[in-house]
Amino acid sequence: MDGQGVVVTGAGRGIGAALARAFAAAGARVVVNDLDAGAAHAVAKAVGGAALPGDAASVEGLAALVDGARAELGEIDVWCANAGVAPVGGADAPAAAWASAWEVNVLAHVRAAELLLPRWLERGEGRFLATVSAAGLLTMLGSAPYAVTKHGALAFAEWLSSTYRHRGVRVHALCPQGVRTDMLAGTGAVGEALLAPTALDPAEVAEAALAGVREERFLILPHPEVAEYYRVRATEPDRWIGGMNRLQRELEQGGAL
Fold first, then answer.
1. Residue 183 near residue 202, CB atoms below 8 Å
2. Which pTM was predicted?
3. Burial degree of 238 (CB within 10 A; 0-12, 13-18, 19+)
């Protein structure tokens, strides 16, 4: 990572802040983005990087971020699409919750790639690290918007890699389960029951991410057991869904849902 220009969205705290620290420690020049300007500046100061606070999901916000990062770095070598939202609710979740999840968890990745790809393809190199979550491989009880849009984020990362790998664009999907962040705390009793027991610290997730990048792995699993869950889901879907439904009933009976 020595000398690489790296942008991390949603980097004011949690996984994003840990990624910024890890990339900086590996020698990268880091741009820290977050909606919370104070948090972005604090992390940037800590890692010796630059803060570019703002919206990393909207068309206008992303254009400003990409232009500002290029002015700061000269070129963007690595884009960490880390910003995410996790609204609770099912099919009855408010329309605004669904819209926000699509904008931040999926379309932010699409819009960033649209802006980054022309130069990356011209140069013959570029790297896109998407913080997807194990929910993109499996599901997330209690949050249909999160589960659905994280599947979308994984699908876009797969498409991006399949389409441009031979032209030098490297893509990685970072898929942890529980991580000790504000987002996990916001999931309440469901997150406490399903994710908290095996939750990792953000620094551990960032370390796994850099290892995956160095090893050129598409799928980065800080919780290795997710690979087996994913295999069962793919090869024995009825068994998998039955197990998830059993968990759903247990959560309902326990009052978590």
1. no
2. 0.92
3. exposed
**Residue type at 4 in one-letter notation:** Q
Residues of the chain scoring pLDDT < 50: none
Distance (Å, rounded) from C-alpha 74 to C-alpha 64?
15
pLDDT at 7: 98
Q: What is the pLDDT of residues 15-32, one digit of tens each?
A: 999 999 999 999 999 999
What is the domain partition of the chain in residue ranges?
Answer: 5-99+106-253
Kindly list the catalytic residues: 146
Using only C-alpha atoms, the chain has a radius of gyration, in whole angstroms, of 18
The structure tokens listed for 63 are 């254009």
User: What's 5-99+106-253's CATH class?
Assistant: alpha beta
Residue 255: its pLDDT value, please?
73
The alpha helices in the chain, defined as continuous H runs, are 14-25, 37-47, 59-73, 95-102, 108-123, 144-164, 182-186, 188-194, 202-214, 226-235, 237-253
How far, in Å, CA of 6 to CA of 113, rounded? 14
Tokens 């589960």 appear where? 147
